[in-house]
Amino acid sequence: MPVRVGNALTLPAQRHAVRIDTGEGHAPTWLLAIQQEGEEGRGLSFYRSDDEGRTFRFSAAIQPDASHADRADLIAVGRDVALVYSWESPSLKASSRHDVYFQWWRYRPGSHDWAPERAVRIFNADDSTAYTRALLARDSLGRLWVQAFRLTSEGGSAAVLSVSTDGGASFQRQPDLGRVKRRGGGRLLSVGSKLVFLYAMHDGFEPTRMRIREDSAPLEEWSPVRDAFSDGIYHGAALSAVADGQGGMHLVYKDEMERLYYRHFDGSSFGSRTLLESSRDWAMQPAITRVGDVLYVFYNVMREPHDSYAIHVRTLKNGQFSEPVVLDTKETYKGYPNALETLPGDVSEVLCFFGEAPDDNSRGHMVRVKLDTPGGGSDEDEDEDPPPPPGQTLFTDSFSRDSSSGLGPDWSLRGLWLAHGKYAVSDLDNPDGDNQALASPSRCRDCQAEAWLQAFAVDEAGVMLRAQEDASYALVFLPSGRIQIRRYHEGGHTVLGEASSGRPSAWEGATFTLAAWGTSPVRLAASVNGQVRLRVTDASPAAIQTPGRAGLFTPIAGVWFDDFLVRELNVP
Asked: What is the Cβ-side half-sphere exposure of residue 112, based on CA atoms within 13 angstroms?
C-alpha cells in the first residue's frame, strides 16, 4: 500500500502487526496497522492478509483523520485485538489533540472479520501539554496497562501509566513511572509473571533505566527506578523487544552512538551487550521476531545517506548469532522495519515490513521481505524475472581422467586437488584457507558457472565467478543444507543472501549454478538442480564489476566435484 514517507512504521518500539489463528477452517489472519498520512485518503488503517503475509488488502479505518498522524501498538488477545493509538512526529509540542486512546477490535465468527468497540480515551491532553508514544501490555492476570509519555512544562517527558482491571471498560491513573529531561521513549513488556518498563530519552547520553513489578503485587507497587545498563537508547525508542518465553526478554536497540546492540534480560537484570552492526546511521532500526527459541533480528543498513539502504537479518540460536544475511539491496530508502512479535514453530518463513521510497522524504510504499526458516521453501519470489538465458559455452570439464598431480593445464590451483577418474577431488584440510581451483579459459563477466558437488554435510563448498586476485563471488552449499551467495574481498567475505537449497539432505549431491550479470548494480542468482533458489543485488562500493575466472572451492579434503560448465549469459 502507498505511504506518504518511508518512515510510516515509526515508532520502532511499537508492535504494528499481529497474527491471529481463528480456527474454523480459516487460514491465520495478519492485521497490519499503517499510517498513510493521506495517501488514498486514509489515515491510520488496518490492512489484512489471509495468505501468511504474501498479499494485503485494506480492511478498516482505525483513526481516519490523516492530519493527526497517530500510530498504534497492538496485542492479540485470543481472537480479538487490543490496541492503543497516539500521535507521533519527529518533535513534540503541546496540543489538546494529542490524546491517547484504547480500543478493542472484536472478532465476529459469522463474517470472519473484526469490528471496533468505542475508543476509550486514556490520557486527555490540553493546550499546555501533550501525550505521545503510547504502549500497551497485558499481564498474566489479564489486566491491561497503558504507558505513554507526557510533555512537561520544562520540555522533558514524564512516563505516565494507567491500568484497567475490567477488560478495558475503564482505566485508573497510576503514579508516574519516571521522568527524563528531554523527549522520552521506551518499552512496556509483560514477561511471564512480571511487567518490565524500560526507558531512555532523546540525545541524553545517560543510562537506560527500568522499573519492574510482580503481577501479584498491589497495583501501585513497582520496584524503584534503577539503571538497566550504562548506555542510552537512541531517541529512547530505537528498540525492539520480545519476551523470551522463560520469564526474560530479548532486546535489540540502537545506542546513542548509532550502533546496533543485543542484550538479554533474565528476569532480574540485563546481561552484557553484543554488537550486531557497527556502521552508524540515524535511520537504522531493529525489528525482531521470536520463533520458538530462535530470534530473528531484521535491521536496515545505510549504503548511501538518505537514499540507499539494505535490509539485513541475523538469527540468534543456542546463544550464537549467525552472520548477516542480506535480503534486499535495491538502491532505495528503507525506513523503520517492523515484524511480528512471535510466530509458531511450524512457519516456513519470517517476514519483515518496512517503508520503501526513493529517499527519506518522498512518497513510497509499504513492502515486505522474508527469510525462510529451516525446512522452509525457496527465498525466490515466484513473480521475479529469471536470470538471463545461457549462451555460448566458454569452458567445460567432466574430470574423466586419473591424475594425482592436479586437474590439468587449464586449471590454476590453490591447496591440493586430484582428478579421480570421474571427479575433481579436494585433497587438503585447510582451516586457514581454501582449496581453490580456477579455470583459466573461463574468464568472463556476464556468465554462469555450474558444477555437481557432494560435500557429505561435513563443511561448505561451492562454485565461484568473477574471481580475481583478492575478490570473487561464490555460491556456497552449507552443511545445514542451505545456500549462500557471498562476496569475497581482501581476505574476508560478506553474505549477500541466504536461502533453503531445497535438498532433503546435505549428504546428497546436487548441481549448483551461480549466475552474475551487470555492473551497476551486479545481479546474482543461485540455482539448485535447475531451480532458482536465491537472487541478490550487489550495489555496494565493493561490488565486483570486472571480468574474472570461474572455479571451485572448499576448505576441506574429500569433496567431490563433477561436470563443471561455464557459459556466457545472453543479457538483453
From this structure: 13
